[in-house]
Amino acid sequence: MLYLILLALLSSCTLKDQKVRNMVPDLVGLKEIVCLVDSSDVLGIDDVSTNPQLFQPYAGPELNYGHLRKALWVKLTLENKTDTAQQFYISSDQVILEDVRFFSKTKEGWDVEKSSWGLAASKKKTDSYLHVFPLKFLPKETKTFFVRIRNKYQVVRYPIHIFSEVQFYQHSNFYVFLDGLVIMALITSILYVFYNLIFSRKDRILIYYMLYAVNFLAFYAIRIASPTHIAEAHPPLLNYFVTIFIFISTYAFVKFGIRFIDPDKEDKKTIIENFIDIFFLLTVLASLFPKYSDAHTLNTIKLIFFTGSIAYLIWYMCIRFKKSLLSRIYFFMGMPLIISGLVEGLTNVFGILKVPNQFFEAFRVSIVIEMLYILFAYIYREKILTAQIQNKLKETELELLRSKIDSQEAEQKRISGDLHDDLGGTLSTLKRLIFDNLIGNVKENEANKIKNLTQKAADDLRRIAHALMPPEFEISGLTESVKELLKNNNSEKKKIQFLQHGKAQKLHSSIELNIFRIVSEIIQNINKHSKATKILVQFIWSENELTMMVEDNGSNFKEAHSGLGMKNMKMRAEYIGGFINFDSNGLESTITLEVPINES
């Protein structure tokens, strides 16, 4: 869109010395264009037509006198360069002119045709909301015309075009088409925001955007588009008050832009933003008194607010350009509309800049594209913020998971220590006392039973303690600890086999411990709940992943009825960034754990 605007500006450079855009140069020639500012504000057509020395050439690409509170007279001398009668149209796209009078010489005197902002197109001689007047020429005829422009509130800017009849209606219809697109884009934006405010997030940024779009729609519909459709004329005073919508939409757009760039800003305001708020209120207040519309102080307040707020938004975009993706998105999305809106305001609201009319043709198109672009960018912004919220929730869940697992490990380590040091010591002492004092006093078969039971108790204690916390786990490592675990659970009725494929890698100790816990939990579940006679445990190593598989011929894992053990395994798998899957056909089961190595 910036390219489109620059293209319009570059194309206008070829016209910088012309006050009239002649679309039919082979048919009509511009002999003279000069201007007169009527300081007395009382001159009539007879006065100006008989005193050509009052007129002076105008230096600039187009006639632009800013907030001129006096009448402006424009004298045009045109020549029909052909040998046939011709009809041309002289038109201006500056629709906000309040009083335009076109004078053409007839045999009876001067014929005057009037046009003004807010006058219904159907009330004009030529059905168009543009200020257009038909010109009739005889072969090789030269004619002089006068245009008088008088504004009480708006900028006196008068870009002049000369068209053939076909060209004019093409031009006029194109402008009506662009206006329709602008209004359609604004209504689409408003409906989208309204839907989201009602049925989705009550995001404050949407309120600012709604305020911006509604006020811009009100401004554009009343000032630009309405003369095409109204039946009765609008008073010029309404055109003055419409400018308030521009200031409100500017304020809302700046607020929207800052919060789009910086979602965490919320209600935090800088000193500059407080000044913008103050000047916005002063600007609206100053705009409520049309009687003082030409007061220098009031216009200065409006100008400070308008340029200052937009300059602050541009500055804010620039300083945050490298800080976030949203800043860069908004920079390329909003900058063309912001710059073109600034130029439009300084030209048509304040009358400071003198920009060729091609710029505003591009501005209409830019509004359509930028409005829709903003919607898509906002949708993308919501996805980014949603992803950020989900990531924060995920981090919180992982932190809770980490705390839970750490608590489990600490408790298991404590229990293992208590079993080994306290109960293990007590059992060892009891075993020694029984052997020293009891074995010799009982029958041999009773002594053997006592020996077997005490040995089994010692073995069970060691197995349970080792399962809770394998001794010297960090030294022996994952593979050896799993082998020891499987060895302790191997029996004649339940054969356990361990296989390893690929080159084993050293993982972080916490990851290895959690893999060991999962294997241990699986073996315990098989021992408690299955009739398996064969168990195969495999470690499959690749460069980026460890796949652990446990297969048996008697388990029936069903996640719908998963107990604490399965939930614990899933929790540990998630904690180490892995994925665990349970697969069973009712007779056999396979549990697969996939752990990414690079992320470990």
Widest β-sheet, arrangement of strands: 2-4-9-6-7
Tell me the total number of β-strands.
Answer: 16
Q: What level of helicity do the residues show?
A: 40-55%
Note poorly predicted spans.
1-17
Report strand %: 15-25%
Average of per-residue pLDDT values: 82
**Radius of gyration (Å):** 43 Å
Largest sheet: 5 strands, antiparallel
Q: Give me the secondary-structure category.
A: alpha+beta
What's the shape? rod-shaped
Order of helices and strands: HEEHEEEEEEEEEHHHHHHHHHEHEEHEE
Cα-to-Cα separation, first versus last residue: 46 Å
Number of helical runs?
A: 13
Summarize the SSE layout with pairings.
Blueprint: H1 2-12, E1 20-22, E2 28-38, H2 45-49, E3 63-64, E4 71-80, E5 86-92, E6 100-106, E7 109-115, E8 131-137, E9 142-149, E10 157-158, E11 160-164, H3 165-199, H4 204-225, H5 236-261, H6 271-286, H7 296-319, H8 325-349, H9 358-437, H10 444-468, H11 473-489, E12 495-501, H12 509-529, E13 534-541, E14 545-552, H13 564-575, E15 579-584, E16 589-596
Describe the structure.
With 600 residues, the protein is an alpha+beta fold. 53% of the residues lie in helices and 18% in strands. The protein is built from 13 helices and 16 strands. The protein has helices spanning 2-12, 45-49, 165-199, 204-225, 236-261, 271-286, 296-319, 325-349, 358-437, 444-468, 473-489, 509-529, 564-575; strands spanning 20-22, 28-38, 63-64, 71-80, 86-92, 100-106, 109-115, 131-137, 142-149, 157-158, 160-164, 495-501, 534-541, 545-552, 579-584, 589-596. The strands form four sheets. Strands 2-4-9-6-7 form a five-stranded antiparallel β-sheet. A hairpin with a 2-residue loop joins strand 6 (100-106) and strand 7. Helix 5 runs antiparallel to helix 8. The longest helix has 80 residues, at 358-437. The protein is rod-shaped. Residues 1-17 have low confidence and may be disordered.
